[in-house]
Amino acid sequence: MSLVNADYDLYQSLGLTNQPVDKGQGKSQSELQMEDFLNLMVTEMTHQDPFKPMDNAELATQISQFAAVSGIEQLNGSFNDLSGSLVSNQALQASGLVGRSVLVPTYNGYLGEGGSVKGVLGLSSQASNVTVRISNAAGSLVREISMGNKPAGEVNFTWDGLNDLGEPMPAGEYQISAQAEIDGEVLSPYVLVEAAVNSVSLGTDGLTLNLEGLGHVCFNDVAEIR
Q1: How far, in Å, are 135, 138, 140, 222, 226 from residue 161 at the CA level?
Q2: Residue 155 in contact with residue 121, Cβ under 8 Å?
Q3: Which residues, other chains included, contact 183 with Cβ-Cβ below 8 Å and sequence gap of 6+?
Q4: Which of 30, 36, 47, 90 lies at a 20 to 30 A Cα distance from 190?
Q5: Rounded Cα gap, residues 176 and 194, in angstroms
Q6: How far apart are CA 105 and CA 38, in angstroms?
Q7: pTM exceeds 0.90
Q8: End-to-end alpha-carbon separation of the chain, Å?
Q9: In angstroms, how far is CA 217 from the centroid of its own chain?
Q10: Cβ neighbours, 10 Å, residue 87
Q11: What is the pLDDT of residues 202-215, one digit of tens each?
Q12: Which whole-number Å values give the CA distances from 16 to 10, 199, 215, in the listed order?
């Protein structure tokens, strides 16, 4: 396996386009350097009115102002370098997600041909009569999965792709909802659905994962990598 030695090579290996920036070997000719500032200050002092010389406080103020501006520019440059490094590292990590599965907060699940849909329910406390409901794109209920009593925390569920009559459902997108009774009150736990990662995209908004049958989701929205 070859090593990725530059940001451009990294983006190329992910199938992404990110043109390399020509950083150059020196400073821009339009930038004022400390040596230029000192030359200007010496010239100013050489041509000043001998009867009205520059005040020491004024001289100190000019030096401190230039030093502050120079320091801010250097700090901005450091932050830009750090930001680029973080994006490169995030892209490298995300490239390893292709072919794996992730949990994302959504109420839609994709059923592949002869496959199943997996996910997680979040219960704030111990619950009874926990139920997962699967509906088709038209909103019609096709399967109700009774999970009984469950403790607080995240509970895994799996839909085998069959309806209530035991018949296989066609491949496609389905709606997933859940209900549970907690202290006599019927609540709707949050749902995380498992989906396969087909590809990774890098744009101005950061990293985006393309999930099988579900489309794009922001990398920051991923709850768990499996």
Answers
A1: 11, 17, 15, 24, 21
A2: yes
A3: 125
A4: 90
A5: 12
A6: 59
A7: no
A8: 24
A9: 9
A10: 17
A11: 777 778 889 999 99
A12: 9, 10, 18
Residue tagged 């699967």 (tokens): 134
Q: Is 121 exposed, middle or buried (0-12, 13-18, 19+ CB in 10 A)?
A: buried
Residue type for position 89: N
In 3D space, the residue among 180, 200, 198, 182 whose CA is nearest the CA of residue 190 turns out to be 180
pLDDT in tens, 3-42: 444 455 555 555 444 444 454 445 555 555 656 666 766 6
CA angle 198, 206, 204 (to 5 degrees): 115
Polymer length of the chain: 226
Q: What is the DSSP string of the chain?
A: -----SHHHHHHHTT---PPP---SS--TTSPPHHHHHHHHHHHHHTS-TTSPPPHHHHHHHHHHHHHHHHHHHHHHHHHHHHHHHHHHHHHHHHTTTTSEEEEE-SEEEE-TT--EEEEEEESS-EEEEEEEEE-TTS-EEEEEEEEEE-SEEEEEEE-SB-TTSPBPPSEEEEEEEEEEETTEEE--EEEEEEEEEEEEEETTEEEEEETTTEEEEGGG--EE-
**Residue position matching structure tokens 């085998």:** 160
